[in-house]
Amino acid sequence: MVFIYKKRIGTKEYYYLRASLTRNGKQVTKDIAYLGSDFLKIKEKLSSLSKEHQKEIRKTYKTIHRFLEVNHFLEKAKELKLKKDEFLGDFLNLVEACKIHWDSVFKRLDFNSKEELLNDFVVEYSYNTTSLEGNMITLKEAEKLLLEQKTPKDRTLRELYDLQNTRAVFFSYYENLPKIMDHNIIQEIHDSLLENIDVRKGYRTQDIRVIKSKFKSSPAQYVKTDMDLLLKWFEDNSNLHPFVLAILFHHKFEKIHPFFDGNGRTGRILANLILMQKGYPPLIIRKKNRKRYLDALSKADRLDLDSLSIKDYSRLVKFVANEFVKNYWNLFL
Fold it and tell me: Minimal CA–CA distance to 136: which of 112, 160, 116?
């Protein structure tokens, strides 16, 4: 196996091509080429290496290419010398690297290439956000349903509408991105996500109990008041890093739990809406990390709606930032 290895000497980073080989039953690792420190020239050096290494390089090309691209845009983020963010910590430059790539590469792609990548993203997003709430449709079934209009067998209508509605809502707001956040937008998103699933529209008028949760949702008579407070908080804290703003808004929305059903799916769409309004790419929280996601949310559940506690929000912000970064490079590179 061939891979890129990075070595820091002083303040500068140098790159080497390494090979992991098996000799006489033992694993041996050795450097096979020095690639320098200039990202713009590393690809040229890779293509000009002797033929004896080209076969191995080809096998791991995608991994090498991803490594180079991620580090290239990470360096660009570091060059911005952004002010430290207490919520994001070391994830700040990683998040910004994704935004730089989104702006300078993804947005400049031709229409068909962008559409293909977005369709792949929305399949992954729809599958994961609905699976977090118990939808049993598999990723492969979601692909066939959303990309080929092939209905999977032995699935409920609710599960089918769940994915189809999510796709429709995402593209609707991606293509016509509102400049504001208000009650109408929030309720429209919810009602569209729950189309043909739940007839109860608008903010709830009865108390609910959130199963297996450690927090108490807003009493019905205070839902509108708390949503007013949330929107005011959102406006008053627009100076927060956009990623932090989106994630904290998501948590506070979930704590209010303003709807009878669909709060999680609505909250994650709202987080993505905020990110895209601020010029950032959308994110996915994967089903496989559901427990970590819920634990991170619950860490902040004791906070008031106007709280900005770094201690209690740091875990959630960094968890979602990690999901954001990993999924971005997997889907948009």
Answer: 160
Walk across the sheet containing 26-36 and list its strands: 2-9, 12-23, 26-36
Q: What is the pTM of this model?
A: 0.90
30 and 18 Cβ atoms separated by less than 8 Å: yes
- Per-residue H/E/C for 78-106: HHCCCCCCCCCCCHHHHHHHHHHHHHHCH
Compute the half-sphere exposure of residue 99: CA atoms within 13 Å on the CB side of its CA.
19
Task: Read off the DSSP letter of residue 217.
Answer: P
- Coil, helix or strand for 163? helix
Return the CATH superfamily for domain 114-332.
Fido-like domain (1.10.3290.10)
* 135 CB-contact burial (10 Å; exposed 0-12 / middle 13-18 / buried 19+): buried
Estimate to the nearest angstrom the gap between the alpha carbon of 101 and the chain centroid.
14
> What is the rounded distance in angstroms from the CA atom of residue 242 to the CA atom of residue 232?
16
User: The dihedral of CA 117, 123, 127, 129: what is its sign?
Assistant: positive
3-state secondary structure at position 333: coil
Helix 310-332 and helix 111-131, axial crossing angle in degrees, nearest 10: 130
Reported as a single tens digit per residue, the pLDDT across 82-127 is 999 999 999 999 999 999 999 999 999 999 999 999 999 999 999 9
Eight-state DSSP code of residue 150: P
CATH 1.10.3290.10 domain range(s) in the chain: 114-332
Give the Å distances, CA to CA, from 251 to 123, 244, 247, 266, 296: 24, 11, 6, 12, 10
10 Å CB burial of residue 269 (0-12, 13-18, 19+) is: buried
